[in-house]
């Protein structure tokens, strides 16, 4: 099985190279085609045309777009994604500071979505043919029609502003110092440094934005899991299991759930990119200092190097998640190990 996993990972990484390259070309050329001048953020209002020409030359913006892209690609291959125009810092440093917060939020949202959706899918399947199924189905459709950013507003107003149960701004309270030199994942760093009070504070700040992502993501998983279970219920192995006298609960948990997991994992892999992208608005609403919030500031300031860097990170993360999903296929489906 290990050899099959290596083959899947190698194929995926080989296919990812042209994908990342193509995306970088598209993003680079589209951004240059926009009617926005990044120099507007750099120059003072009284700058002369000579000043503008000098800065443009220093940034290489006076060269052709193709030459600019070749230079950017050469530097990117050496780990240099340029310097942010608005923050005046290397893009890689800004990404390294912001990415752990977004990954922590995304994985918390995904974990919460699975906690909601797996029991939800089982409950929807278990109540099939009853009035309860119709009620739950309407509830799931209602959840499905509400996007993550709207859930974020509802949760912030309900549990943050009106009830005051949970914090709704930032990663920690303003008086708490974030650990320096750690992984950037606060839930890990505070445990490593034995600051359990700060860990609890960071955890509370994570609940509302993660819940907003989870509530926008889980209805899809619920519906796909229910459909997969319904399809699996007519399979031969389920009939045999019933004839052997196994209870319905044993059949579902020991046999059907495992076989229904593949389409559900497919959906999670395909939709995780949307969940990761959904952090952009959720982070903005909760003033969460992640990569999505950074993207909003970059777009607002016409910060082309930073936008390119963030787009590249989104692409790479999505490809990595799809690679993990393909590896899970091989682990869960023995037929693929022989392919």
Automatic annotation (TrEMBL):
InterPro entries: BPD_transp_1_N (IPR045621), MetI-like (IPR000515), MetI-like_sf (IPR035906). One of its GO terms (molecular function) is dipeptide transmembrane transporter activity. PROSITE patterns: ABC_TM1 (PS50928). It is found in: Cell membrane. The keyword Zinc-finger does not apply. Pfam families: BPD_transp_1 (PF00528), BPD_transp_1_N (PF19300). GO terms for cellular component: plasma membrane. Its main location: membrane. It is a multi-pass membrane protein. Belongs to the binding-protein-dependent transport system permease family. This is ABC transporter permease. The lineage of its organism: Bacteria, Pseudomonadati, Pseudomonadota, Alphaproteobacteria, Hyphomicrobiales.
């Amino acid at each position: 099985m290990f050899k099959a996993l290596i083959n899947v990972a190698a194929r995926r990484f080989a296919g990812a190279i042209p994908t990342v390259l193509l995306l970088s070309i598209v993003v680079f050329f589209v951004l240059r085609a926009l009617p926005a001048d990044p120099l507007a953020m750099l120059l003072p209002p009284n700058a002369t045309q000579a000043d503008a020409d000098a800065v443009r030359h220093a940034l290489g913006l006076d060269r052709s777009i193709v030459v600019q892209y070749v230079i950017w690609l050469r530097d990117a291959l050496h780990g240099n994604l340029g310097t942010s125009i608005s923050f005046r810092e290397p893009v890689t440093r800004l990404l390294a500071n912001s990415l752990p917060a977004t990954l922590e939020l995304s994985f918390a949202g995904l974990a919460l979505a699975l906690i909601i959706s797996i029991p939800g899918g089982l409950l929807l399947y278990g109540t099939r043919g009853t009035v309860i199924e119709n009620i739950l189905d309407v509830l799931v459709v209602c959840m499905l029609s509400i996007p993550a950013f709207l859930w974020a507003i509802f949760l912030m107003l309900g549990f943050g502003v009106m009830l005051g149960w949970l914090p709704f701004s930032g990663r920690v309270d303003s008086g708490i110092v974030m650990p320096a030199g750690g992984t950037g994942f606060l839930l890990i760093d505070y445990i490593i440094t034995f600051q359990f009070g700060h860990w609890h504070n960071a955890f509370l700040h994570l609940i509302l934005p993660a819940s907003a992502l989870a509530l926008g993501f889980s209805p899809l998983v619920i519906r796909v899991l229910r459909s997969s279970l319904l399809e699996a219920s007519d399979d031969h192995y389920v009939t045999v299991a019933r004839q052997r006298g196994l209870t319905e609960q044993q059949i579902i948990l020991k046999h059907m759930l495992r076989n229904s997991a593949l389409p559900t994992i497919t959906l999670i892999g395909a939709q995780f990119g949307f969940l990761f992208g959904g952090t952009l608005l959720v982070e903005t609403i909760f003033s969460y200092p992640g990569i999505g919030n950074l993207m909003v500031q970059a777009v607002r300031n016409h910060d082309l190097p930073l936008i390119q860097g963030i787009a590249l990170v989104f692409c790479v993360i999505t490809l990595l998640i799809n690679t993990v999903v393909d590896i899970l296929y091989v682990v869960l489906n023995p037929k693929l190990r022989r392919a």
